[in-house]
From TrEMBL:
Domain of life: Bacteria
Required co-factors: [4Fe-4S] cluster
GO MF annotation list: 4 iron, 4 sulfur cluster binding; catalytic activity; metal ion binding
Protein name as catalogued: Radical SAM protein
Keywords: 4Fe-4S, Iron, Iron-sulfur, Metal-binding, S-adenosyl-L-methionine
Keyword Hydrolase (UniProt): no
GO biological process, one term: tRNA methylation
Keyword Oxidoreductase: no
Domain Radical SAM core: from-to ranges: 29-251
InterPro entries assigned to the protein according to its UniProt record, in alphabetical order: Aldolase_TIM, Methyltransferase_A, rSAM, rSAM_sf
PROSITE patterns: RADICAL_SAM
Amino acid sequence: MRLQRTVEGELNRLFVFELSDGLRVEGVLYRGDTLCVSTQVGCPVRCVFCASGRYGFIRNLKAEEIYGQLELVRSFHGIRRIAVAGIGEPLANWRNVKVAFERFRREGLRVSFYTCGFPLSNLPQLLRMPHNGVTLSLHTTDPATRAELMPGAGDLPQLLQFLRKLLPTLSRRKRKKISLALVLLKGVNDSAGDLLRFAELAQSLGVGITLLRYNEVGVFESPDEEEFEKAFLLLRRQGIRVTLSTRFRRERIGGCGTLTVGGRLPRGG
């Protein structure tokens, strides 16, 4: 495994890692001290608003490949935080992700996760771990819409039923570190009704909302600044804790949904 190249953005620094089999994944340095790492080559969730699953799922990263992304960049960057939010679904490669997480934690790093919540069997352990935050990628309360947006994300009603049983068993401090992700897609999930239903869901679960801007990598359109602000204010008026997508996650280089795989892709990829 080696650092093949670095791409400088206005705010972020994108790293292209070449694996021993010639495949490539990407990671991102943002905020100057946070490294976003990948956990799989490709992604089985195949979100249609994200470039990471464009070639489908190719293989899991080994624990040393997940941790190795830190090793390859920390000699010239002071890393304090790890975001397991790059290419791949961490719960679908849980054994290797858990080993890498434990290594990150032993070095005093704060670790946060983005996940679609499936496989459900691994979700309780993730939520109970000493993480620095877990963001659950929902993006809608409508099962049919979510199935279209995230074909490999599992059954939404099953996930919500699971969360309603699991979350009350966690401490209030733990629940404050959990949020539901909502990437706004114009004409898809951004109506007042959509937003109110999403706020009601977050309120019923006792968690916050992470409101994300869509980086236009596919067929969708992002609401403009005024529409995005209206959505934010509407959610806030419902008494929900709302975290906004930072400028680092909105940049064209290394922003949410922009990471891709490369290298010796399978035939037809």
